[in-house]
Amino acid sequence: MIVLAENGNIFLHSLLETENSGAGRERQNSDIMENKESKQIEMSNPIAFITENLCLYLLEKPSLFPGVNIPKKATNFIRTHKEKLKVQGEFSFPCRSELWNNCCKETGHKLRSIAFDMFKDEGEDVSINAQERFLKTAAAWTFPVERIKIDNERCFLYLQRQAVMTTLLQQVLKNDNTNTFGKLEKDPKQRVYFNRVNQAGEEMEELSLYRVKLLEDILGRVFEYSKWTMITEEEVMEAKQGKGQGVLQVQVISAAGKPSINAVVIPSSMLSSATIRCGIVIDPITGKITKLKTKEYLSCRSNDMCLMAMHKYGVRVKDDTKFSTLMSRLGAAAVTVDLMEVRFSSPVQIIRSGKGSTKGAAFILYNSARLESLLRRFDEKVENGDYEGLPPLDSIDFTLLDEEEEWQLVFCYIFAFPNLIESCLEQIQKGICAVHTIVRFLGDFAALFSVYYRRIRILTQETRQHLMPYVYARIYLVKAVREILNKALALLDIEPVHFM
After folding, report:
1. 61-72: per-residue pLDDT in tens?
2. How many Å apart are CA 390 and CA 124, to the nearest integer?
3. 122: Cα separation from own chain's centroid
4. CA nearest to 99, candidates 114, 115, 110
5. Rounded CA Rg of the chain
6. Is 218 found in the same domain as 312?
7. Phi and psi, residue 281, nearest 5°
8. pTM of the entire predicted model
9. Which residues fall within 8 angstroms of residue 153, CB to CB, at 6 or more apart?
């Protein structure tokens, strides 16, 4: 369980002791132990850290079973915002006490009186004091809360932007073993066996089965990134004999049919299984499963990428192997985006004549190239003596990053990236995955960076000493954006583009 940062814990539990006497002291000891066990979790998934801290503050543990987890329904009450952050803050949750108490009936949690006081009519001394007590606690969190607003039966939370930005960017850009950002290790007792589809070469020429293979490969990388305990077929022998921990067997099949799979027999007592049924690829003209072969579609999309690069992005066509290889890469990336941008179980249409989303692979990779080009130009200015070298990360004043797009890049995408990966696997035991959200994340991320790139002049045309702190802070921001963008691309097996 994720709990309060130590300073916040001390303050919160001093309140709880006053309120609940000896029972509060027992819970304090339990929660401090939990805090020590999960010291790194706030960087593994910042959104989960905030959500769990809020629930811990708002909800009192049941006296009979204090170790029971906070119900999922309660954590779902905490809404993370993606737009209008200035107006509605970064997080919000309902203020109606009956909603909280009803969702916690099964576990026995209930709303604390200090939380209930926060929700009383605005202007009452009790409510104002309760809100101040909460802010004093939340100000000690790793990602501190600056202010709250209660309006229309919702409580809106506003983070201390500069503190969050400084902490987050320094962590994301660390190049040592202490960088735990996004690396949330799963329960090592839960082992996963990925039962991959065994397809013949001619079967892979069917686009619907190629989509299955893409989904398999992406899930494999998400499992690996999330540090799920993956086991091989040889290790399954132990489970077949009824030894060791249980195994979750995951397989992906096509809605077009049931291809042969490598069946592994495991005693039911040791096995839980998840079958992910992947939707078919259809032709938009006929509305039926497409007859276009995989190689033909890859070639078609490579040609589309070449034409788009020429007309939209001004790329000059070169008659050489390097350029042809790049266009093939772009074509493969386009096919991946085409087939994965909708929910895994839904049918997906092929793209004909280059018609498709403006936030497709070409747009994403064009902005990837923009990032690289910008950082190259900065390095060239340093080499030419126009700029001094980039100062150490811990000396940068990130309070200078006060543009709204800068905060959106940090909060909506860098801050949110680990939670995106978590959500992909959240319902995997039910045969449900959310790989399509990675594609959407990339498209929206690239769109926001494109707006920021066009509006803000990151590099100055001439050296102006008073502007250099802004340049350095923004270069580090761009480096962090590149880090997260490339991590998301890697999950789809798409290489970033350095030139376009």
Report:
1. 887 777 788 888
2. 51
3. 35
4. 110
5. 25
6. no
7. -105, 125
8. 0.86
9. 94, 95, 96
